[in-house]
Amino acid sequence: MKCRWWSAAVSSFALLALAGCGGAPTPKMQNEANLDIHSNANPRQVRSTHLDLDLEVLFEEKKLRGTVTHRIERADIAAPFVVDTRDLDVSKVELATAAEGPFTNTLFTLSPRDPVLGSALKITLRPDVTLVRIHYQTRPTASGLQWLEPAQTAGKKKPFLYSQSQAIHARSWIPLQDSPRVRTTYRARVRTPEDLIAVMSARGDFRLANPKEAPTGDYSFRLPQAIPSYLIALAVGDLEFRYLSTRSGVWAEPSVVDKAAKEFEDTERMIQAAEQLFGPYGWHRYDILVLPPSFPYGGMENPLMTFVTPTVIAGDKSLVSLIAHELAHSWSGNLVTNATWRDFWLNEGFTTYFERRIIEAVYGAPRARMEAVLGHQRAVNLVKELPAQDQILHVDLKGRDPEDGATEIPYEKGALFLVALEDAFGRERLDKFLYSYFAKFRFQSITTQQFREFLDANLLSTDLGAASRVPVDEWITKPGLPASAPRPVSDAFEPVDALAKRWQAQDAPESKPETASWNTQQWLRFLTSFPESTNAAKLAALDRTFEFTKTGNSEILFQWLMLSVRANYKPAEPVLERFLVSVGRRKFVRPLFEELAKTPEGLARAKKIYHKARPGYHPITATTIDEVMRKAGAAPSQ
Ligand code: BES
Ligand code: ZN
Questions:
Q1: Is 411 known to be catalytic?
Q2: Coil, strand or helix at 110
Q3: pLDDT tens across 497-546, in order?
Q4: At what angle do helices 520-528 and 554-567 cross, to 10 degrees?
Q5: What are the two backbone dihedrals, phi and then psi, of residue 236, each rounded to the nearest 5 degrees?
Q6: DSSP state letters, 12-62
Q7: How far apart are CA 328 and CA 344, in angstroms?
Q8: 159 contacts: CB under 8 Å, gap ≥ 6
Q9: Which residue among 123, 391, 569, 625 is least crowded, i.e. fewest CB within 10 A of its CB?
Q10: Distance 604 CA to ligand 1 centre (A)
């Protein structure tokens, strides 16, 4: 019976279950199946299967306070229950055998704090115990939470709180087994100040969607599907809702919500395109929450509730591939999850490939191809910059923070690997394979090894001729891009490249009319084709013709500011400062600070700007920029 439970419920442990039932795994298999080096938890002995959260949101103290109750499965009856924590204050732990209680106190210890992993909370169990309730509160410095003052919101009147749990920040706001291979269902009750609304990555009380319904400050959520801890998410603020379709909608601050609804109006078409490709959308609703501009990422695929940066709202839907990306994670990532952070490319590479398939279905092949070319270019550039070991899809993260592995390599090289398979086997066969991959591994967390075995059995071995054209081992375990890697091209970039060349050769060629119809991707191509040595006089001429300094498109502005910093182009300086102070998206902020820090004069400006910007940054971005400044030799600003 116990053997059946393990193999049915937790298939990544199927090998071990077999061992327990008589077979003997090789030591290597055991290692592979056992190890998540980024968690102190002991799910093989005692595994959390469901969480019940009861939290109060205390804006004044910048704390969450309450309890989490774990329902546990015990494979080793003698073992304690070990969960991850980082910077949590645990006051009491109680045990029970049934939900009605009684709950009685038990002993617990916290191990010394490791800067990356935090402290293991070890809880002594008794026989028969199936429920463990932890009383705790968070600290204002919790890395997974950002507490915003009213001034940092669009409305400027009410505070805002949001979480960001990926990769290993969930442990800073909930004591839990913080490994992507541990999946739990969850329920939550969240109490907030009465005039604010709480949303989570779960099903909520949908009366809230009606703006005439007054908020209550007392919210309940439940998620019946088992998910990894990094997908648990909470946000609290002055939020309003707009429907996009019956099953999708957008939450944002009142002054942003209509713009957001317009920008994301194609969401239902994207969901339908995705369903066509990978099977039914299984998460009930698909809603989007627009966060304040300090959100450190572009988007985060929290189930039922994608979190996005407001910088994706360009006014012309030109950056909505980010929505396609987060939506695609509903399959690649949320349904089939990387078992450890070294398997991250299974989440992001597949998702980047799917994102472009969705874009192709909704906006046409030319747009998808342009985005593929831009992505390929980023991969090629990155291969020139990164140390060899960080160019490997199945990256070794021993002794490192899992976010060190979150470069564009897992995204773009991972996507390119799937394109290589598509080229070799044809789209029809690849799609059939991917569909069966989701069917086979749904609601499981899998390793690169499991993917490879499935790929061998279900695609490679069906056509050895095609398989011989894809060096799978090289793609997954070697740095760089294989010589046979696909090189996507786009006709739409031909006039762009031609004009960029003319601009590089002369001062201000006649060019305005032909650019009138260019889209954002073409402008990004144009700007990224200028060499790093482009000087300020050239930028001034470009600016006179195209007014880049005035653009409202965050991606175009970012590329322009990168050129401006390199060339020391003065007229862009006020815009640069405003951008760095108001936007906390790490993908924009980090390269700009790095570029500034390359010259003594730039470093001095970086210090001044960072001093202003840092109080508004999320802890994730602040930690990153602290490191950039430290490496550049600047004294810390706080
Ligand atoms: N899941 C990621 C964000 C993430 C990755 C957070 C690793 C923490 C650790 C999300 O799906 C993502 O990839 N976001 C991208 C946007 C996307 C369009 C490439 C981002 O934030 O830039
Ligand atoms: Zn992603």
A1: yes
A2: strand
A3: 999 999 999 877 887 788 999 999 999 999 999 999 999 999 999 999 99
A4: 20
A5: -135, 125
A6: GGHHHHHHHTT----HHHHHHHH--TT----TTTEEEEEEEEEEEEETTTT
A7: 15
A8: 59, 147, 148, 149, 150, 153, 196, 237
A9: 391
A10: 31
